[in-house]
Recover the amino acids of this structure.
């Protein structure tokens, strides 16, 4: 047992509280590294998904030429607040589930996919509002409008749509986040396990590579749902259920349109999630 403040043994509740606190600190710092690394790619992805530009390079050129380089980081504040909430929730829940579901109960190849699925359900609630604000900020800027502050956007949504407006597309958020975290945490843990078993790479290299691959796998699996979610959350008039939006997207541009923005999303996923996992693991190690 670990020594407590008065020299006694820590209770299991205390041990769990310390572990959760470390998860919160590490995932918060990891979120900052992730967002600032990946935000330019995310801006391009959203603009392509809502039909403002066709092609990654053309979108990037037009954005920088018309609005300046800093426009690529537009929406960073809601994205950062959302990422911190999302990752604090995701890592805390996922690691708590790992403490509850022991390795003896499920194999190393099964447990992370189970915990990832449950994690995705809960993170949908934490992420939905920030995703609504982020997508709208990026779209308003792309259309040449004056982007309101986050407080102004929230007030506007509450005035016109009420509290439900802050959770626009929640059902589409579920459709994206549950399979995303199934793939994300599942593939990360399996990749880390396999690389540690079969290579001589340093821990830092393993976390970096596994984190990047996990992000790319997660986005490749869930991209159509992200396209649908972006359409719903940026629409001025609620377009209906995800099924209806998906059907409209297919009618407009076929299957290819459901993967609009997959280029910047997958490219972004490697550096952003490498930064997330490497920072998370290093901070956890530093905290002891």
């Amino acid at each position: 047992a670990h020594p407590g403040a008065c020299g006694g043994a820590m209770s299991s509740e205390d041990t769990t509280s310390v572990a959760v606190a470390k998860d919160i600190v590490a995932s918060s710092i990891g979120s900052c590294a992730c967002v600032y690394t990946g935000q330019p790619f995310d801006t391009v992805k959203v603009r392509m998904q809502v039909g403002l530009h066709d092609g990654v390079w053309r979108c990037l050129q037009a954005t920088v030429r018309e609005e300046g380089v800093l426009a690529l980081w537009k929406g960073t504040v809601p994205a950062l607040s959302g990422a911190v909430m999302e990752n604090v929730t995701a890592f805390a829940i996922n690691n708590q589930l790992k403490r509850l579901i022991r390795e003896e109960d499920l194999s190393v190849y099964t447990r992370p996919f189970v915990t990832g699925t449950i994690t995705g359900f809960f993170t949908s609630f934490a992420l939905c509002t920030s995703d609504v604000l982020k997508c709208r900020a990026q779209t308003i800027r792309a259309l040449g409008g004056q982007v309101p502050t986050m407080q102004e956007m929230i007030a506007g949504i509450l005035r016109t749509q009420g509290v439900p407006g802050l959770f626009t597309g929640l059902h589409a958020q579920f459709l994206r986040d549950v399979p995303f975290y199934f793939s994300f945490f599942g593939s990360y843990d399996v990749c880390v396990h396999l690389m540690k078993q079969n290579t001589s790479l340093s821990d830092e290299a393993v976390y970096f590579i596994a984190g990047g691959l996990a992000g790319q796998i997660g986005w490749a699996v869930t991209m159509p749902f992200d396209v649908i979610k972006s359409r719903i959350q940026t629409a001025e008039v609620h377009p209906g259920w995800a099924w209806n939006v998906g059907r409209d997207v297919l009618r407009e541009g076929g299957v290819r349109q459901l993967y609009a923005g997959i280029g910047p999303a997958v490219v972004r996923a490697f550096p952003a999630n490498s930064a997330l996992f490497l920072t998370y693991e290093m901070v956890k190690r530093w905290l002891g």
User: Anything to note?
Assistant: The CA atoms of residues 150 and 237 lie 20 Å apart. Residues 1-10 have pLDDT under 50 and may be disordered. The radius of gyration is 20 Å.
